[in-house]
Amino acid sequence: MIELTIFLVLMTLGYLVGQYAEKKHYQSIIEREKRLSGLTTVASRFPPPGKQHDQCLVLGSVVISVDYFKRFIAMLRNLFGGRITSYEALLDRARRESLLRMKEQAAKMGAEYVFNVKYETASISKGRQNTIGSVEVLAYGTALMRPRDEA
Amino acid sequence: MLISNMEIIPGKQIQKHFGLVQGSSVRAKHVGRDIMASLKNIFGGELKGYTELLQESRDEAMDRMQQQAHAIGANAILNVRFSTSSVAQGAAEIYVYGTAVILE
Question: Per its UniProt record, what Gene3D superfamilies does this chain match (chain A) (predicted)?
Answer without folding.
Answer: Hypothetical protein apc22750. Chain B (3.30.110.70)
